[in-house]
Amino acid sequence: MMGSPKYTLKEIALYFLKLGTWGFGGPVALVGYMHRDLVEQKQWLTEEEYKEGLALAQLAPGPLAAQLGIYIGFVHYGLLGATLTGLAFVLPSFIMVVILGMIYQLYGGMSWMRDVFYGVGAAVIGIIAISAYKLTIKSVGKLNLQSLKVNWLLWAFYVMAIAVTVITQQEQILIFIGCGLIYMLVKSPPRWIKASAINPLFLFAETGFWDYSKTTLIQIGLFFLKAGTFVFGSGLAIVPFLHAGVVNDFHWLTENEFVDAVAVAMITPGPVVITVGFIGYLVNGFLGASVAALATFTPCFLFTVVLAPFFKKIAKNASIKAFVDGITAAVIGALVGSVIVIAGKSIIDIPTAVIALASGCSLIYIRKLQEPQLIAVAAVLGVVIKMLI
């Protein structure tokens, strides 16, 4: 493990339990909260440890925020720390979506939830935009001419990743790896490159609570295991994959039910990918929810804990540092691109634009304002506005 921890295992587990309970805003906001809380305020992690975790989280498949949380637990407390932080982070939102699934089964729909999300979605844009800006300043450089001159290549990766993410609406893993390799070769090429040819690089009841079908349970497990293994990046990247399987291939949900499932994920705290729990519940009850969540998060957990020890051992190498810097610039660019894509879907009229702008300004100028308070106000505003129009 790296250095002596400034926190206990209990403290880091409780932090992620709270983040999983109150952390709204999706992957961009969640990784921003982790940086603000654990690096800037508590100083439990160094900037270097955080950047390494963010780069590794993007390299491995699965939800970005959950992977970073698992890595942070691993940094000083190994496998036990990774397991506890991962469970603590995911469990609160899993319980919430199961409860919402029970309500959904009882009352047959959630039109009111879309009214809530009308305001919440706009506020989330303001929240994650501020988080993305802070990550840009920390990971790429300050927005001034001097930084652009010194870190021009990192800024180029950053802008390219924004453009690609906006155009394709998903993060491209090959671009991240390519940016890392290019920056490594430019800034600090490894000695073996000079001595030999480059070898191929391999990186790494009424509510239906107990109702389930064994056959469907197996299908759920295999499908969500595939989703967790082969889909990289944030919840934004996994949603199209889920839609294709859940609606088009298996016909488990209708279009409206799938939209409701995504809305549930966005108005509940924790990782956006927890929508898999809600989908699993609607399809096959509590066991379906449990299998869907377990199958989705298991690959990212295994990839993170398997790769982390090797990643940490070689992280001091100058070439590896350059590789990480290149990847990180592209990762942050992709996150900013995700903000733009999500904004395009959430900012649909003047009221939502005003809510988003007001949310961002509120976080800047009202220092004691917490994200859950902002989300609550936005939810009420959303319902009121929809009643009036």
Automatic annotation (TrEMBL):
Q: How does it sit in the membrane?
A: Multi-pass membrane protein
The UniProt entry, under NCBIfam families, shows: 2A51
Cell compartment(s), UniProt? Cell membrane
Cite the entry's keywords alphabetically: Cell membrane, Membrane, Transmembrane, Transmembrane helix
Protein name, as recorded: Chromate transporter
Where does the protein principally reside? Answer: membrane
Please report which protein family the annotation says this sequence is part of.
Belongs to the chromate ion transporter (CHR) (TC 2.A.51) family.
Sections of the chain in a coiled coil: none
Q: Which residues cross the membrane?
A: 12-33, 54-74, 80-104, 116-135, 155-185, 222-246, 258-283, 289-311, 323-344
What Pfam families does the database record attribute to this sequence? Chromate_transp
Against InterPro entries, the record matches this protein to: Chr_Tranpt_l_chain, CHR_Transporter, Chromate_transpt
Annotated organism of origin? Pedobacter vanadiisoli
